[in-house]
Design brief:
The complex is a heterodimer.
Chain A: E1 2-3, E2 8-13, E3 18-22, H1 29-44, E4 50-55, E5 59-64, H2 66-76, H3 84-98, E6 109-116, H4 124-130, H5 135-144, E7 147-152, E8 159-162, E9 177-180, E10 184-188, E11 191-194, E12 199-201, E13 204-208, E14 229-234, H6 237-247
Parallel strand pairs in A: 6-14
Antiparallel strand pairs in A: 1-2, 2-3, 3-5, 4-5, 6-13, 7-8, 7-14, 9-12, 10-11, 10-13
Helix pairs in contact in A: 2-3
Chain B: E1 2-7, E2 11-15, H1 35-44, E3 53-57, E4 62-65, E5 69-77, E6 80-82, E7 85-86, E8 93-95, E9 100-103, E10 108-116, E11 150-152, H2 160-164, E12 172-174, E13 192-197, H3 206-214, E14 217-223, E15 227-231, E16 246-247, E17 252-255, E18 261-264, E19 271-272, E20 276-280, H4 285-289, E21 296-301, H5 304-328, H6 335-352
Parallel strand pairs in B: 13-21
Antiparallel strand pairs in B: 1-4, 1-11, 2-3, 3-10, 4-9, 5-8, 5-10, 6-7, 6-9, 8-12, 13-20, 14-15, 14-21, 15-18, 16-19, 17-18, 17-20
The chains are: A alpha+beta, B alpha+beta.
InterPro entries (chain B): CT_A_B, Cyclophilin-like_dom_sf, PxpC
Protein name (chain B): Antagonist of KipI
Organism (chain B): Scopulibacillus daqui
Chain lengths: ~250, ~350
């Protein structure tokens, strides 16, 4: 860990073509904010050879092309060879010095309609029973929360959301389903999320949204981005069908 | 201008160098498993090195050629033939329409690449023609090729009348030179794969560090474009602390709770939560792509600086190949020159028979 005047961070290689910059060990908003800010800096003013950034809970990984980084360095400083990892680390450390952690940044809030229970949420009753609640109480608690998108991963457009009330937390299913329909809303431990594409999975399913979270032909292809705030609101089966019809949803 | 799929083979997909820049949206990179073979296949027919080609796995397809074209076949040897006559690999080959290109049993490696001059006429999804099978997008309709598919390609640069007069009698014409791929991609059977330490290397026991680099691992049947599951000595974490999900990449070697390693490959997810003992160096990823299930591999540790040097050396080597191929194109980037050359060579060869 390098300690700078402002905060601690660690820059370490993920192989020969990427570096991970870690800001802490625990999931919290302060760490998330630093990740977002470094990404913003890199996307606004990147370096030759930069490919992309992938944010996660406590770190962000920066992918680069070592050949371009090497050539760029050679162009500027003719003789001394520097490892591309070192060159990229230096650039990142310079960027980190510019980070203004006291700055606040704009957050988008995205409301996602969910048709809870029934065939769409076969595990809603289990989640209610597990927590000694009625299914209506589970729906109420789930749709009252505000959830922060820490990262997108696991599948295209899949959000890792923080902020689930422990009152409705529930363990994963003991045997995962082989196929979960796209749009399914689930709970696993202290996490909640939406399956953007049909995949196998072990989450407890409590409902389904007609909204598409992954749109391969649009830019960006993911409805949600790290840093967004998500809210859920309940809709009836009729409204669900209407939205599917109108928006060409799932 | 197209190939008609008579038999699809075991797993034939359209792949380029991958879908970069969308990983923060959870979008998998995909792309050719053996990027060196793909790049060379493209250079041999005058394409840009990131153009899409067909990636064929173990049992290749049978394709009806519906238009005269210049192709190149690289990668593993899936015994290609045209109308029964064996086709040389690693060189430009000119085929007239109506012929049938057939791949037979796998003689070496695991994956072969078929490029066509002008490239395949496939719409890009997120800037790439690569197929992502699990996501069902990209490539040809988001899936592997099936019988009856018609895969269109672009007209290569020279005009029809320019090459129509080139005549030869056999089923195809090939140039009299080929690329020496040995220094770039040695097909050794049970390769030694070089790795750097993974981000959670320190969490594994000393004996695991040792056995990882000493013993052989078998590539199991549960291996695909997403990753190779290995079996061998079990690897042990000393520190069983739960890891928060973070970015993983092509070549990351994760260890699952049962102690078995998985090498993540072209179609791997963007993030993962298992500890990473090691990371395959980028220069050796194509070697892994050519290992079949059932074969074994060994690992050897190198420093990050060595990994970077090897990367730069291989890139330099590819650059030299590119220059050599351009020279063969008569110093011009001309497909016509190449077709002319192939036809002349075929005539001489037949004359000598």
């Amino acid at each position: 860990m390098s300690i700078m005047s402002k905060f601690a961070f660690d820059v370490s290689p993920l192989g020969d073509s990427a570096v991970s910059v870690t800001f802490g060990e625990e999931i919290n908003y302060e760490t998330h904010k630093k990740i977002k800010m470094l990404m913003d800096l890199l996307e606004r003013d990147s370096f030759a050879g930069f490919i992309e950034c992938v944010p996660a809970f406590v770190n962000v990984t920066i992918y680069y092309d070592p050949l371009i980084v090497h050539q760029e360095h050679k162009k500027r400083k003719k003789d001394d060879f520097i490892s591309p990892f070192k060159a990229v680390s230096n650039i990142i450390e310079q960027k980190l010095e510019q980070l203004e952690t006291d700055k606040t940044f704009q957050q988008r809030t995205i409301s996602i309609p969910v048709c809870y229970g029934g065939a769409f949420g076969p595990d809603l009753e289990y989640v209610a029973r597990f927590n000694d609640l009625t299914t209506d109480e589970v729906i109420h608690i789930h749709s009252a929360g505000e959830y922060l998108v820490y990262m997108i991963g696991f599948a295209p457009g899949f959000p890792f959301l923080g902020g689930l009330s422990e009152k409705i937390a529930a363990p994963r299913r003991s045997s995962p389903r082989t196929s979960i329909p796209a749009g399914s809303v689930g709970i696993a431990g202290m996490q909640t999320g939406v399956y953007p594409i049909s995949t196998p999975g072990g989450w407890q399913l409590i409902g389904k949204t007609p909204m598409k979270l992954f749109l391969p032909n649009e830019n960006p292809p993911s409805l949600l981005q790290a840093g967004d705030v998500v809210k859920f609101y309940p809709i009836s089966r009729d409204v669900y069908e209407e939205m599917v019809y109108k928006e060409g949803g799932q | 201008m197209s190939f008609r799929v008579v038999k699809p083979g075991l797993l034939t997909t359209v792949q380029d160098l991958g879908r970069k820049g969308f990983q923060q949206h959870g979008v998998v990179v995909s792309g050719a498993m053996d990027s060196y073979s793909l790049r060379i296949a493209n250079l041999l027919v005058g394409n840009k090195d990131n153009e899409a080609a067909l990636e064929m796995t173990l049992t290749g397809p049978t394709l009806k050629i519906e238009k005269d074209c210049l192709i190149a076949i690289t990668g593993g040897d899936l015994t290609p033939s045209i109308d029964g006559q064996s086709v040389p690999m690693w060189k430009p080959v000119y085929i007239k329409k109506g012929r049938t290109l057939k791949f037979g049993p796998c003689r070496s490696g695991c994956r072969a690449y078929l490029s066509v001059s002008g490239g395949f006429l496939i719409p890009k999804v997120m800037n790439s023609k690569s197929t992502y099978l699990r996501g069902q997008f990209g490539g040809f309709k988001g899936r592997a090729l099936q019988e009856g598919d018609v895969i269109p390609f672009n007209q290569h640069e020279c005009r029809r009348n320019e090459y129509k007069k080139e005549r030869f009698t056999g089923p195809f014409a090939a140039c009299n030179w080929s690329v020496n791929v040995e220094p770039l991609l040695p097909f050794t059977g049970s390769p030694v794969i070089r790795v750097t330490k993974g981000r959670q290397f320190g969490g594994f026991s000393g004996s695991s560090h040792e056995s990882f680099a000493k013993e052989a691992f078998v590539v199991t049947n549960q291996s695909d474009r997403m990753g190779y599951r290995l079996s061998g000595p079990l690897l042990e974490l000393e520190n069983k602390r739960e890891l928060l999900s973070e970015a993983v990449t092509n070549g990351s070697i994760q260890v699952t709770p049962d102690g078995n390693p998985i090498i993540l490959l072209a179609d791997c997810q963007t993030t993962g939560g298992y500890p990473k003992i090691a990371q395959v160096i980028t220069a050796d990823l194509p070697l892994i792509a050519q290992v079949k299930p059932g074969e074994s591999i060994r690992f050897s540790y190198v420093s990050l600086e060595e990994a970077e040097q090897l990367y730069l050396e291989k890139e330099q080597h590819l650059q030299q190949l590119k220059t050599g191929i351009l020279l063969a194109f008569n110093r011009k980037h001309s497909t016509k020159a190449l077709i002319k050359q192939a036809c002349a060579n075929e005539k001489t060869r037949r004359g000598n028979e």
